[in-house]
Specification:
Helix content: 25-40%
Largest sheet: 6 strands, mixed
Oligomer: single chain
Family: Belongs to the methyltransferase superfamily. METL family.
Protein name: Methyltransferase domain protein
Structural class: alpha/beta
Low-confidence stretches: 5-13, 37-42, 186-198, 254-260
Strand order of the largest sheet: 3-2-1-4-5-6
Pfam family, one: Methyltransf_23
Keywords: Methyltransferase, Transferase
Number of strands: 6
Organism: Medicago truncatula
Length: 260
């Protein structure tokens, strides 16, 4: 293996410890659906899923289990792009934020981005807020740009203050039109054409959504609806950035989601 290939392999091995992860999945009844065939549905109730993740994060509350994911800035340079031409800050929705290991490097690197972060565990959100607060400084208070909220997007969807129903309908109608423009320039020039920025009832949707090791935590039968829900709060021209087990970091576009 060449040196560059070796470095890349090491680079992508720092998200988690495989043996610890394997032991956790095998010993946790709520995660057994990961071993089931795709033809079978999980019998675990949504309430049990949430409780299991709360217990999981409580056990790993020291923060040692997750490492800060600085590599995401290399894989997703779109997150480093500046604000819109009209100086409106770009908005990121981090789904399944855990203890903030994805959020912190983004806040550090891009001073013009506002992060909305959700998780189904109140305990985890409290830990994330603690970590973000500890890393803030007098020059750049991350708390001003960090907005956590409790939500299980796979069962309840996202709250309307992210994008009201009229905005959601408008986003979905325009997504496929903007897809070709975003694909051509690899998302580096997102187009902000929505007048929803001035609507008081919601924040007008988000420019980016990150799903970092989140989809694998969603039972298979709830996964399509969960992904679709993400696109209902994504501005036209926005992007879903995801990474999960067995996949390299990638970008999920609207037309790819719904193509037959």
């Amino acid at each position: 293996m060449k040196k560059s290939e070796s470095e890349a392999a090491e680079y992508f091995s720092k998200d988690f410890e495989w043996e610890e992860l394997r032991s956790e999945v095998e010993s946790n009844p709520s995660l057994r659906h990961h071993f089931q065939s795709f033809s079978h549905s999980s019998t675990q109730s949504p309430e049990s899923d949430v409780q299991a993740w709360k217990q999981f994060h409580t056990r790993h509350s020291s923060g040692k289990f997750f490492k800060e994911r600085r590599y995401l800035l290399k894989e997703f340079p779109q997150l480093l792009s500046s604000s819109h031409p009209n100086s409106i800050p770009q908005k990121l929705l981090e789904v399944g934020c855990g203890n903030g290991s994805t959020i912190l490097p983004i806040l550090r690197a891009n001073k013009d981005i506002v992060v909305y972060a959700c998780d189904c565990s109140d305990e985890t959100l409290a830990k994330a807020k603690e970590i973000i607060n500890e890393n803030s400084n007098a020059v750049d208070s991350f708390n001003i740009r960090f907005h956590p909220f409790c939500c299980d997007f796979s069962t309840t969807g996202f709250p309307n203050w992210l994008a009201c129903n009229p905005c959601r309908d408008n986003f979905l109608q325009k997504q496929s039109y903007y897809f070709s423009d975003v694909k051509d320039d690899k998302g580096m020039h997102l187009r902000d054409s929505c007048s929803s920025e001035e609507i008081d009832c919601c924040i007008g949707g988000v420019d980016f959504i990150t799903l970092i090791f989140t989809l694998s935590a969603v039972p298979l039968e709830r996964m399509p609806r969960s992904i679709e829900e993400c696109f209902t709060v994504l501005k036209p021209g926005g992007m879903v950035l995801f990474r999960d087990y067995g996949n390299k970091p990638d970008i999920l576009f609207f037309s790819e989601l719904f193509r037959k």
